Amino acid sequence: MNIIINQKNHNIPDSVSSIQELRRHFNLLTTNVMIEHNGVALTADQQGHIQLESGDKIEIVRFVGGG
């Protein structure tokens, strides 16, 4: 399946069918990130329920601390 992640085309396996599975695919389950799906920011609860489709646009932003 082709999706756009952070403005770059990615071909991901069809077995990656939800946002939660996308996080698992990219080893982001333990990382604090904000995810936007087709222009809508998702809560952590929504990520397991949103199904991916070819052509979806995903933005992933990692939170980084500093001082």
Q: What would the keywords be for this entry?
A:
67 residues, mainly beta, globular
Can you characterise this structure?
The model has no long low-confidence stretch (mean pLDDT 92). The longest helix has 7 residues, at 19-25. A hairpin with a 2-residue loop joins strand 3 and strand 4 (40-42). The chain has 67 residues and is mainly beta. The chain is globular, with a radius of gyration of 12 Å. The chain has a five-stranded mixed β-sheet, with no helix packed on it. The chain is built from one helix and five strands; from the N terminus they run ββαβββ.
Q: Average pLDDT value?
A: 92
Approximately what portion of the residues adopt beta-strand conformation?
25-35%
The major β-sheet equals: 5 strands, mixed
Measured as a percent range, the helix fraction is 10-25%
Apparent shape: globular
Structural class: mainly beta
Strand order of the largest sheet: 2-1-5-3-4
What is the tally of beta strands?
5
Radius of gyration equals 12 Å
User: Segments where pLDDT lies below 50 for 5+ residues?
Assistant: none
Counting H and I runs of at least 4 residues, what is the number of helices? 1
Distance between the termini: 40 Å
**SSE order, one letter for each helix or strand:** EEHEEE
